Amino acid sequence: MRVLAAMSGGVDSAVAAARAVDAGHDVTGVHLALSAKPGTLRTGARGCCTIEDAHDARRAADLMGIPFYVWDFAERFTEDVVEDFVAEYAAGRTPNPCLRCNERIKFEALLDKAIALGFDAVCTGHYARLATVDGVLELRRSADDGKDQSYVLASLTHEQLSHAMFPLGDTTKDDVRVEAAQRGLSVAKKPDSHDICFIPDGDTQKFLANKLDAKPGLLVDDETGAVLGRHAGVHEFTVGQRKGLGIDAPAPDGRPRYVLSLEPVSGTVRVGAAEKLAVTEIVATSPVCRVNLDGPVECVAQVRAHGGCAPAVAELVDGELRVHLREPLRGVAPGQAVAVYRPDSAGDLVLASATISETG
Question: Which residues form the tRNA-specific 2-thiouridylase MnmA-like C-terminal domain (predicted)?
């Protein structure tokens, strides 16, 4: 097959590309330039989207002896990831920019261009497994639970996954680093990328404040209705947040307060006790389903990229994914994705994914 290897400059994508070469595929490497001003992205050789990363990706491709290109996706990234991130926070929701980047950049924009150029598949260093069982393409968790990325891939369509390759799905991160060193890849010990690449200093509040006009509102005690303070906009908060609330007086019971809900129209931020964060019901829109969910299905629901899992029952009702959690989860917010899995000895199978619109 003709394979386009998306090479971020990190160790995972480098080893994934090398494995595609070893498998006999005709591989071409490509690095995505995601900013017209690369200096505004994270620096320090973290493995994602800086000039340093582009150089690391090129060196890896040269070592493998494969063609290598840099494609400018800066405009698309700004529109589909950065501007979406800002708009979601302004609307009082909590987005996942890495999920959006996978969905709209790597497996929409990049894949569309790859197919148009005659490539059969896009290869990435994601930790997830693809398998065809009885003619059905399945997406499963990776062998490395700690690095599993099936959650951020669960919103991909069947068509997109049919042109995807995840060579690292059966390998642990430690083994990937050992393999990289054995291959002579200079990125073998390169640190992983964790932060949001377009917020280099990690200060999300400051980033949003520079993008959004102030829209003052009130901090309100959810139980008593008392006004506890004022703020410059709901974008300064996320559900479950405890620190940085700007509340001077402690609660009557002396316990900490948490953000319970955001109301962007009125500008009200409701705060209260930790137990009020418990969620047992989730309604999610724009579902991508891999199995028939017209009836209740026992599953495990996940609401964050790492952690945030609970046994659940999921069902598709009137075009929405309804999830009843057997055990409550905290800090579940509209805008996040919920992915539901069927536990399996072969690796948990992704059943569906959708965007959370309501919790209860």
Answer: 294-356
Angle, CA of 212, 213 and 216, to the nearest 5°: 115
CATH fold for the domain made of 2-182: Rossmann fold (3.40.50)
Binding residues: 6-13, 32, 125
pLDDT per residue as tens digits for the range 285-309: 999 998 888 889 999 999 998 888 9
Residues serving a catalytic function are 101, 197
> What is 278-359's CATH superfamily?
Translation factors (2.40.30.10)
Binding site feature residues for ATP: 6-13, 32, 125
- Residue spans of the domains in the chain: they are 2-182, 213-276, 278-359
* pLDDT tens-digit series, residues 316-352: 999 999 999 999 999 899 999 999 999 987 779 999 9
